[in-house]
Design a protein that fits this description.
The protein is mainly alpha-helical. It contains ten helices and two strands; from the N terminus they run E-E-H-H-H-H-H-H-H-H-H-H. The protein has a two-stranded antiparallel ribbon.
Length: 189
């Protein structure tokens, strides 16, 4: 069996080489332009654009943590990121790239934290809240998703107390919405 390798950017200054068999060559070619790290690929974009891409990457990787990435989760991600109709295909392309990216969510969280350099701690808390919302969007909140959210919160320096407040807020809000919908359905029935 012949082996090929692919270089994966995990963190600034760290390179990992993955060996792949000839049977995975097609997958290798479709993964991030022959191993170019997404963070390197978009490094010449504006800081704001890179932040949005970082949020997209974290969102997709979190949604994949429970073993699948559904259309419903993609739809929820697209709802979170403000965009115009003509930008939707670009966002979908980035989502597809993130879906194929092999690096763990922790590396992307570290890259985003480095990019923001403690400038916007409230934005980091917002990202944790978004991840929590996405983890619940498919109706399944897995242990893997919980662990990923906690790890990202730790990397961001969002204390457990802050993340718990955020998760409680979203949980209570979702419960109120569900109650309202159920009440409305019963009223219309």
């Amino acid at each position: 069996m012949r082996l090929f390798f692919r270089i994966v950017c995990l963190e600034k200054g760290i390179i990992t080489i993955n060996f792949m068999s000839i049977h995975t060559l097609d997958n290798m070619i479709s993964l991030n332009k022959l191993g170019i790290c997404m963070w390197d690929k978009y490094k010449h974009e504006s800081k704001q654009t890179i932040c949005i891409i970082g949020v997209l990457i974290l969102s997709v990787k979190l949604c994949k943590a429970d073993g699948h990435f559904s259309e419903r989760e993609e739809f929820e991600i697209l709802k979170i990121i403000p965009h115009e109709a003509q930008q939707k295909n670009i966002l979908r392309k980035i989502i597809a790239e993130a879906n194929n990216d092999a690096s763990p969510i922790e590396n992307d969280a570290k890259n985003l934290k480095i990019l923001l350099a403690n400038e916007h701690p409230e934005f980091l808390e917002f990202i944790i809240a978004v991840l929590y919302r996405l983890a619940h969007s498919d109706g399944v909140y897995s242990v893997a998703e919980d662990e990923d959210i906690r790890e990202v919160a730790k990397i961001f320096g969002v204390t457990k107390k802050s993340s718990d407040v955020i998760s409680d807020f979203f949980s209570n809000t979702f419960d109120k919405i569900r109650f309202f919908i159920l009440k409305k359905v019963k009223t219309n029935a």
